[in-house]
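Appendix B, Record 12. Input sequence as logged:
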Amino acid sequence: MNIPQHIAIILDGNGRWAAKKGMPRNYGHTQGAKTVEKICEDAYKMGVKYLTVYAFSTENWNRPKGEVDALMTLLRNYMKTCTKTAAKNNMKVRVIGDKTRLDDDLQKSIANLEESSKNNDGLSFQVAINYGSRNEMLRAVKKIIQDKDENKLTIDEIDEEVFAQYLDTKDIPEPDLLIRTSGELRLSNFLLWQLAYAEFYITDVLWPDFTKEELVKAIEQYNSRDRRYGGVKGE
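Logged structural output:
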């Protein structure tokens, strides 16, 4: 089976999963974080080299304050857990998104995690926090303009390859496969540039219930696609 080099996942359905169990939404987010850790291990053992997950979007700030505060607490705890997991599993971690809006202590935790894991050569794990693809591209354009004004770049030098180096995903290959759980059929402002040629896999499974078996199903469907001509192989 051909294993995608880079898989991106929109982690959807945590709140609905919790509601079905009569639990608060935050319980779903906590269980969803545990699923992330397990899928990281499973994906790497299967041969995936890069895994990018959508943890907190720029639009998520519009959720009720109590839920946002709980998510920030969860992210703080997860950064600490992830530091240990990264060391244990030789995992390189990068946080993508506009980190400037995050509290100073969370920014420091992220910086420590990235620094401590930067030389690891196992799974490259990207976590999107306060991430929105439109925001990412606007920040890239502003930096390009600044570099042009400082004579570090000319207009003629700007092409797709140069532009990609100004994105948060600099030096990371574009995803081969996007997985979205909970059955939603939209990108939700996630990796709009990077997903231009990715295969999409949508499942009704809610994220906390996503397992290795579900990951295998996604990769099997990826293998059924004709990446050169489009459609399904054998048609």
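The CA atoms of residues 8 and 113 lie 20 Å apart.
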